[in-house]
Amino acid sequence: MSAAPIAASSHVAVAASAVGHRRRARVGRVARRGIALLAMAAPLCATFTAFVARPGRVVPRSAEQSVNNVDSSAVVPFMLRSSVFPASGIAGSAALLAAISSPVAATDLPPAPSGVDMMPEPEQALIVIAIFFALAVLTALVVGPFFRVLEKALPEGWFANWRATWPIVGAVYMVAGVSHFAVEQAFEAIYPPQGTWGFWYLPGSPQFHVEWSGIAEVAGGSGLFLGAIAVGVARFFGKEPPAWLRAIPSFAALGLFLLTWAVTPANIYMYTHGAQMVGLTPGDQPIPIEFHVVRGVLQVLLLSLLWGYYNSASSAVEDDKGTVSAAE
Prior knowledge:
By secondary structure, the protein is mainly alpha-helical. The protein has helices at 3-53, 75-81, 94-100, 121-153, 158-163, 168-182, 184-188, 206-236, 243-262, 264-273, 289-327.
């Protein structure tokens, strides 16, 4: 037997081994990401069940109730009862999204623990502007310096693998969007009434804003979560997804980022005026200020994940377009 066929057979065997190794590595990566998604989806499903099935409605708080009775030690139990403390890493829970991304109205509220509603309206307006400014600055710091330092500190590839799981946030938005209709009155109860802070005169009823934002959350969440799954499935089977498919989760993340900013006034109204979500928050006592601080931190993380994913995914799409153009 000549040396040429033997050498050819060796090359074929080496090539087949390399292909098999790459395929096993790809399957391993997909499996690890799938396990991570399932680990985060399990508490999400449990939270959704508790969120929708929770019975009862709150008894309106008396205007004479003292805001000095707020028990700071109840902050964590309250967050656990109302399902706004994230149960697992990035994804958090459905009610976290419900708490940090939806609007709608309360009347005859007693003084809020923050005391902001007792201030003159110009001062209230300045506080609202300051809250928006603080959220924007903190989000920029997390997306920029913090994420860069974290990526360098972690072993190579870890940050990219973690970022690949961020679309699970889309599933949380989908559930939160459905809850806009399942417990619609809860969201209507935290929509700022006309004239709030001296400048809030947005047209449309509380019901209208609850419903359109709910539809937007379902649509954007579907684009992010299901779009990312479609991209992952295509790559699992060795097919490079087209640019338009890869752009869907990217732009969905951008849309959810903007939507979260658009509905932030509802969260601020809860802080400044003590509004509560009917049936979902303890109406017999004020919500502690510490709760709003924790929710603000979580909102910064959420905004950072959405913008970070959009920025990374859109850059990858543009790089691929540049590569194709150069090849042509």
